[in-house]
Amino acid sequence: MPLYTxxxxxxxxxxxxxPWRKILPACVFAAVLFAWSIGFTxxxxxxxxxxxxxxxxxxxxxxxxxxxxxxxxxKKFLQEDWYIERxxxxxxxxxxxxxxxxxxxxxxxx
Length: 110
Description:
Blueprint: H1 11-16, H2 20-78, H3 81-91
């Protein structure tokens, strides 16, 4: 038995009978929130991609700094006459006048 004498209404009839003035702002807000979350998700994915790319670039930067340090040291050596002579003898197979070059041939190599 109902406790009150008024008309019985179901929950379903209340939802259907809500005025559009109350539902429309909530729907618009939900749509805007959904669109914002999609845009935010794209930005979040791009942030993680860029942070990974930053790590790669930073590691490459460290490699290049090490290479620069090695090249600076080699530049110091290239200003020395003995180093230039050594490179000429080793890489270009140059000799001073009057020197005799003796080369050993490995019989296993064709």
